[in-house]
Amino acid sequence: MIYQLIINRYDKLENLVSDNRFMSDSLQIVEPVNVSLDVVWQGTAGKYDSRMGEISMDGCFIDSLGQETLGETISFKVRLPSGIWVNLQGEVTLQEYPIGFEVRFTGLTPENRRLIVEVVAAHGGKQAQQILKEEAEQNIPEQTPQGTRRILVADDEAMTLGMLTAIIEAQGFEVVSAPDGREAFRILQQDADFCAAIFDMMMPHLHGMDLIHYMKTDARLNHIPIAMITAEQDPKIWDESVAAGAKVFLPKPFSPPQIQMLLRMLIKEDSSPPGSLPYANANIG
Amino acid sequence: MNIPAYKNNDEAALPAKRQFLSGEEVREIIDLSVLESFREFQQPGEPDLVGKLIDLFITSTTERIMVIRQAITDGDTAVIKREAHNAKGGAGNIGAHRMAACCKELEQKASQPDEAAVSTARMEIEFNEVIQVLNLVKQPENDLSAHNQPL
Fold first, then answer.
1. Residue of A92, A107, A150, A163 with fewest CB within 10 Å of its CB?
2. Which of B38, B43, B60 sits opposite A157 (nearest CB)?
3. Structure confidence by residue, pLDDT tens digits, A94-121
């Protein structure tokens, strides 16, 4: 049964590849590009680890044996080429069982829409590249940061803390560093003047998750966007930290471009040089 | 401090050749391109960033290994697991992926004392090899990128 399913899947896959399209006409309009990105999605039938095979600026095609009902909204997370996981949701607009299904993005935040345009552009999407080019040519003035440029960073691995500090300071931010969770907690009790916080998941005394819980229950701190960084590979940890209120999750080891991307996702300003693609230095899978 | 020009696969430019490690061996021990990528964050007039990161890595990992050894003696599984986990993160971030794999193995075997001891020994061997390469990288005379001559 399983073998037959796989054979059917590949037969159908071959036919569709020859037609050079998976996505429906409506989403074809916005230029899908081939990608291979990790996806974890959850629907009524359960939770699945899958791959995203195509993405456009309006939707994507997820290769999956899991079936979803047309019109249903699913939540899913996708690992961008930069290594950062992003939470998305969308409406199922096409079923190609057992190959997968198409999703039209819904409820996209401006930051996530921008990230998707960048992914499409980095994978050869001409329209997306044009959008980014025009944006750069218009020389949109960078948003003047209103308020603080301080970021709280807590990691008990001294070298990792040093790496994070070097990258973040080079982006023009001031780093307030804490060598463990307890020190970060002590700082947060006295000081709420931060534009973002970046925590290691596992630290002595207080974990990153404990700090998130504290910040989300304190009116002085609950507006500060938080990123979690961890060497833990278990996807459940990602779920837990996002559910607790983390905005971005990045697994270790990380690279400088990934941290730069993380900062852009946390803080609503574009610190990349005009005209540059943020994935220029990242591994594009 | 400049990291030698290892990127072009020039065996002669690899610092560890002086210690009879081949270029391939060095690449297996540590991916020096990771540290190389931090050179662009060097601020003028500030202490050498790459050298500082190397020192932080060696110091913190040395301390962690001592804590792990003591935890194995005490049978403190939670500490072994936590320290191995953190050592894994540090090793991975500096590009010492083989050492990171040893740390992961220790993290997984933290509750088995004999196996944990063996894994710790493996991790220490890897760590010593990483130190050997990093110390050579730190030596000023290994600024080979300028002249790129055989050692």
1. A107
2. B60
3. 888 778 888 999 888 877 888 888 888 8
